[in-house]
């Protein structure tokens, strides 16, 4: 039985004061961590405030990015070693905004996955196709290839413990959600790809999220699908009541 994992991705929104206020508003009403994992991914500058506010609560903390080197002359980058020392649990990698705007390659993302595991954190690895790719009938092949490249060299144990987020680019921040069936279809492809690369035991363990205009009104239906174990949520994760509705999808 895979534990549900609902993660907010605040992107470049919120400041430390808003972060503290947000966590104070939700912390008493989070589901128990052993039933559903509630995670917030925040900008690096907000992580100290987030970690402080989340102490002793059922909330886990994600960074939205990190570099693949631990230290050195890499101006402006964030070290995975430092994130681990700070107490960060998850790091989101391969988000389409990072692939598109910051030109991150499959190879960069794969190196980040290795660095995150080396530093005792868990990657939330994102994949997903553009509208053009979908309309060309190549969504399955595209996503399967991203997963294959992203997981290169990772051990079966590492992959079993990680999270893969399927986020069709055309559904991000557009209000256009993939239907629950469309989301399930590609999440199943992700799981089959993991089974081919490793084996069915690993595929049965890896948790797969759907992301793209998830909101309280559609989360239950999406979470009801066989291969969907969680959500990676942008817009609807930035308001406390909405975040609580999301993490309590099965109440
Ligand atoms: O990482 C989150 C996704 O990009 C989804 O964003 P959204 O929920 O605002 O569509």
- Gross morphology: globular
Mean pLDDT: 97
CATH homologous superfamily annotation? Aldolase class I
* String of helices and strands: EHEHEHEHHEHHHEHHEHEH
Bound molecules: glyceraldehyde-3-phosphate
As a percent range, the share of strand residues is 15-25%
The low-confidence runs, each spanning 5 or more residues with pLDDT under 50, are none
Note the main sheet: 8 strands, parallel, barrel
Helix percent band: 40-55%
- Total beta strand runs: 8
Structural class: alpha/beta
In short:
The protein is α/β, with parallel strands linked by helices and 251 residues long. The protein has helices at 16-26, 47-54, 80-86, 96-101, 106-118, 131-135, 139-150, 156-161, 180-197, 200-205, 216-223, 240-247; strands at residues 5-9, 37-42, 59-63, 90-93, 122-127, 163-166, 207-211, 230-233. The protein has a single domain (5-247), classed as Alpha-Beta Barrel (TIM Barrel).
